[in-house]
Design goal:
Length: 449
């Protein structure tokens, strides 16, 4: 107790009347430091930007708010920090972002707060008050997963997330300014701090606050109430009954599966037996697989061989079937057929269109067949001249397909490799094939009007 009193007396003598700046002084660690400094008699100025969801609040200074000067500003704001730093003796630099999850979501904002803004504050201190002492609040998180315990300053630095990287960068900036510019700098690597005014609604600052809240609410470290270590006899009996009920349910399910499997096997055996018996009893004609067209031809042949057979006469069943088949054939030739009692209308009736010009077509085709010229020849020459006259053109060239016509037309206009040809998106394949045949690239478009 005597040593503690002596230490407090030395602290009071050291900090009494000192002009102190606490950045991040409205947060958890900063506000607790402000309460101590006010108790020691220091002239305290708090600088905080009050970033939402970081735990910073004016309520953290309840009880000492009248003895503290509060400046709502970012430590990267030179205009606001310069007059304050010029008149201070000590700067406790605790302003930082501490959420590891938020650093993963927005690493650039985390880097600005923990490295860029820190460098700006150091420049202000170097320029306005190079003799003022600076204590930087760093974090043990820069070590990453411990490679040995206890962790000390010689432990390798292996950051595991952007927040740890940016905090380490801010710390190294402070140490570097101490080496290069002679600023009296010290870094304190804090780990899992807890106490009054800490954020306990979530784990943004550290997991200890959330853990303490869950414990205070009656749960375990994971918020789940634990069962008693030694269950009583009633609990054991309930467990045994539940286990027995599960075993009985499993046995019933196995029995049901076995019964269903036996029923399926018996049904399959009966089906196989029925099929075999039916194959033995049915006559060969009942299982004939000849098509109706073959049967029609067979009836026709028998009519020719036995013209006086009553069954094959005009009133016989065979003749009726033959007449029905002839009617169906006639309807098909006319372009209309009945399928399952419904009338099928053809999409395009070419036979009806050809019928009006049949004589001319047959004469022209016969002339080509008689000439023996199936490529070019007089017929093609005559067609090209007649088509050119009809179109009002000087010449016309007959080709083998519409694709060839598109390709030749594009080449006639000197369209080839390196050119693009616009066509509609719902075109047919030959259109695109003609464009590619000319060496051009198709560009699809969709008309809006």
């Amino acid at each position: 107790m005597t040593t503690l009193v002596q230490d407090l007396a030395q602290l009071a003598a050291r900090y009494a009347g000192k002009r102190v700046i606490v950045t991040g002084g409205l947060g958890f660690v900063g506000s607790n430091l402000v309460h101590v400094l006010v108790g020691l008699g220091s002239d305290v100025t708090v600088v905080d930007s009050l970033v939402p969801d970081t735990g910073a609040s004016r309520e953290n200074l309840a009880g000492v708010e009248h003895a503290v000067h509060v400046c709502i500003a970012d430590i990267g704001d030179d205009a606001s920090l310069s007059p304050l730093v010029a008149e201070c003796d000590i700067v406790f630099n605790l302003a930082a972002r501490t959420s590891h999850l938020e650093s993963v979501r927005d690493p650039l904002a985390d880097l600005h707060a923990n490295a860029g803004a820190q460098l700006s504050l150091l420049e202000v201190c170097r320029r306005e008050n190079p003799a003022g002492r600076i204590l930087y609040g760093s974090t043990r998180q820069i070590y990453g997963r411990p490679q040995y315990l206890p962790v000390d300053e010689r432990h390798p630095v292996v950051p595991l997330d952007p927040n740890a990287v940016s905090k380490y960068a801010g710390e190294r900036y402070h140490m570097l300014y101490g080496q290069i510019h002679g600023l009296p700098v010290c870094a304190l690597r804090m780990t899992n701090t807890y106490g009054p005014r800490m954020r306990v609604i979530d784990a943004r600052q550290n997991f200890v606050g959330l853990w303490l809240r869950l414990v205070d609410e009656g749960g375990g470290a994971c918020g789940v109430r634990r069962r008693p270590a030694a269950p009583g006899p009633d609990l054991r009996r309930r467990r045994r009954r539940r286990a027995a009920a599960r075993r009985r349910a499993q046995a019933r399910r196995r029995q049901d599966l076995q019964r269903r499997r036996r029923r399926r096997q018996a049904a399959g055996a009966r089906t196989v037996a029925d099929r075999r018996a039916g194959a033995r009893l049915l006559p060969a004609r009942a299982v004939s697989k000849r098509a109706p067209r073959d049967r029609h031809r067979r009836v026709r042949r028998r009519l020719d061989e036995h013209p006086h057979d009553a069954r094959l006469g005009p009133a016989g069943p065979a003749a009726r079937g033959t007449r029905e088949l002839d009617e169906v054939s006639a309807r098909a030739r006319a372009g209309i057929a009945r399928v399952d009692g419904m009338t099928e209308v053809p999409f395009l009736d070419l036979a009806r269109r050809i019928e009006a010009h049949r004589a001319k077509l047959e004469h022209a085709i016969g002339g080509v067949l008689d000439s023996g010229r199936f490529v070019a020849g007089a017929a093609v020459d005559g067609f090209e001249k007649a088509f050119a006259a009809y179109c009002g053109a000087a010449h016309a060239a007959g080709v083998g397909s519409g694709t060839d016509a598109l390709t030749l037309a594009l080449r006639a206009f000197e369209i080839g490799p390196g050119d693009e040809v616009i066509t509609v998106a719902n075109t047919c394949v030959p259109t695109v094939t003609g464009i590619l045949g000319a060496g051009a690239a198709p560009v699809w478009s969709m008309p809006t009007r």
